[in-house]
Amino acid sequence: MKKFAILALAAAMVVAFTLPASAFDSEFGGYWRTRAYTQQNFNGNDDQPGGDLSKVDTRTRIYYTAKFSEDFKFVNKFEFDADWGDKKDGYGDITADGIKVEIKNSYVDFNLDCYNFKIGVQHWVLARGFVFDEDFAGAIVTYNMEGIAIPLIWVKGYEGDENSSPDIADNNTADFDYYAIAPSFKLSDTLTIKPYFLWATTDEPSDANNLYDIPKINNVDVWDLSDNADIYYLGVDLDAKLDMASIWFTGVYEMGTIEYADGDDVDISAYLLAIGASADLGGLDVHGQVFYASGDDDADDDDYEEFAGPKGRSYIWSEIMGWGIFDMGLEKSAGAPGDQISNIWAANLGVGFAPMDKLKLKADLWYAQLAEDNTYGENELGTEIDLTATYKIMDNLSLDLIGAYLFAGDATSLDGQNEDDPYEIGTRLSLSF
After folding, report:
1. Same domain, 237 and 146
2. DSSP symbols for 176-245
3. In which region does residue 418 sit, left (phi positive, over 0), alpha (psi from -120 to 50) or beta (all else)?
4. Which residues 6+ apart lie within 8 Å of 221 measured at CB?
């Protein structure tokens, strides 16, 4: 994979510099950031190892697009990550001879009449990330008309092969695919509605681990026993823009069946509701949101009621409980779902303002509980305070200072014995072009 990534990057550069200038226009862009941060007591107990981390890391993304016409372009995005001092495969150690090149995106984007085609490795978002927000290999075909866009999406989640399972006679039965339709209707200048439907399906999921994030049913890993699976998501997004405010809503119902090889099956019935709003009050930004994702009230029955998206879902919310800016460290506090929203309800209220031209300040208050008690009979994750200061050093270059503290509830724990509150302090220097 490393060799392929390097060759792909080299090939893109060769094409860019060898074809006649009149053949196409080259567009370059990118993003860079370096972060330094410390995370403490994320496992809820200062005496347990693994709950503390201090590190510095750097990420670079290079974007290159070959634009052949207004209706045809070839898009590529490359990424380089380095943990400072890491000598495994990055470029963060002494000598800094990195060999790690990642391909984020590589796809063609072209229009034929009213249709747009995006084919290749690309990014897609569904249900604001509650269901999907990730890069993937597949295709999006969109029919466009005035005020209406109707995309059809195919995500290739897993390709079966001879190594998938010794019991599989046909490699294709191990495939895991997502199929979706997600139209967007702009009803007016102030109101947009986006209904959607996604079907995740496989005939033999024994080695498609984590493509569907149900960890256990009847206290057994689903994929160890299942024969096939069909999971459906039916939802809608609403977005309304008023004079000084905006309001959004998302609702998703999850249903389907996972069949066991012995003939038993598990019926899925789960849901997620979320609503948020923001208002500009004369330079003061006031914002808030509430979301609820159902949990499973009985792990021993054949009904699964915990909302869980397919692999690729990512909804970032608070700094400590919900991934936040430092998402490659310890990621989340114990007991919290992080960016994969499941079995939780949370509420947020925040304010932001700019005391001077180059400085922005933001404060957020979060409270979260599990929708259903954990194995220790606890549900309170706690109250979190997030503070962020962003200073614009110069055009395209910004410095963020972040501090977060979680007044942990009893559910913020790996062993049911919460003793210490998690906290996080860090900084990020970033540029985009």
Report:
1. yes
2. EEEEEE--EEE-SSSEEEEEEEEEEEES-GGG-TTSB----BTTB-HHHHEEEEEEEEEEEEEEEE-SSE
3. beta
4. 215
Residue whose tokens read 């009621």:
305
Buried b (16+ CB within 10 A) or exposed e, 30-40: ebbbbbebebb
Alpha helices (runs of H) in 95-141, residue ranges in sequence order:
none
pLDDT digits 0-9 by tens, 380-419? 999 999 999 999 999 999 999 999 999 999 999 888 777 7
Give the pLDDT score at 262.
65
What residue numbers bound the domain in which 294 lies? 113-315
In one letter, which amino acid is 292? Y
- The answer to the question of residue 348 being in a domain is no
Q: Which pLDDT score, from 0 to 100, does residue 35 have?
A: 97
Model confidence, pTM: 0.90
Where do we find the tokens 């866009």?
149
Kindly state the average pLDDT of the residues 326-343. 91
Evaluate whether 270 touches 235 at the Cβ level (below 8 Å).
no
* Residue 369 is assigned to a structural domain of this protein: no
Q: Which of 80-89, 160-169, 232-241 has the highest mean pLDDT?
A: 232-241
Dihedral sign from CA coordinates of 61, 66, 67, 71:
negative
